[in-house]
Amino acid sequence: MRHHPWTLPTWALLGSLAAGCGASHSHVTWADSQPREDAPLTPKAAEAPPPSASADPKAFAARYPNPALCEAAARRLQAESRDEGWAGLKACIELTPFTQIRALLSGAWSEDLRVRPEAASLIARVVAQRGGSVSGELQYLQERKIPIFSLASAVERPDTYKGRYVLLRARVADQRSEGEKPTVWLVEHTLASVETNAPVGYGESYDTTTTTSGDLGGQTQLTGPGRLGGSVSTRERGNSSTTRKHYDNISDETGQEALGRLQGADPFLEARRDYVFLARFDGVRLTSGGTDDDAEAPRIPVLTIVSYHSPQPLVVY
Fold this sequence. Notes:
It is built from ten helices and six strands; from the N terminus they run H-H-H-H-H-H-H-H-E-H-H-E-E-E-E-E. By secondary structure, the chain is an alpha/beta fold. Among the domains are: 60-116, no CATH class; 133-210 and 232-317, no CATH class. It has a five-stranded mixed beta barrel. Helix 3 packs antiparallel against helix 4. It is elongated. Residues 1-28 have low confidence and may be disordered.
């Protein structure tokens, strides 16, 4: 077989390709990398403990967005310390608009309400913050066997209730000095609901006038020709509107008055304003002109005022 001078044998070509592949092949060896050292962790600063209710009551109450959560936190403190829990409850009542009387009178605080000297004043404050509807709140207090009573009950049986707490809503009519302690003349009030009709939306009114006129002509033998005329006018007025019933609470006198003794002159106890008073019942005193032998002689109850609180305008039921 004849080959062209420029043609290489097939085996030579394959050999050169194999040699080229062998020459171009390379091996890569991976070495293990050194382990990376993690950056040292910076310890976080420990969180400050929550403020103590007894040491800083304002800071304790400010931690909670509403009075209910504040009272729940005070109950949790009570499990660790009854004194600390009570301090937390006082902060909730005195520094927030606390109206949760059922939580206050629940079993969790029953022992504290019985033995703590300031417990009755805290209850009176809550009653005032709930609107000062004393008659309704007293009924609930008596259901819970809280020894706070109405002025009417004390006046009916003065010997039974002497020395006990009474709760009343009253208006200061006068303030005088009697010896070393000033005395205020109290007129008891109660809240009464009054119904009113308030207009809602647009109203309509109308005014209609109707006039009718006419005349009549004729002739008679006696009078001859003549005419008779006249007119009649009618007018009608009216209006219409849509109303909705509203119920407002007003303070009204009960007819009962009392003398209240203060520990000292108090410029914040203003005349002609309603307050919720917590007082100790000291008995009754004959008014001027009465005698001890006269059972029908007018008598007025005498109280020692323990605390007073301004009632909120909105009543909580």
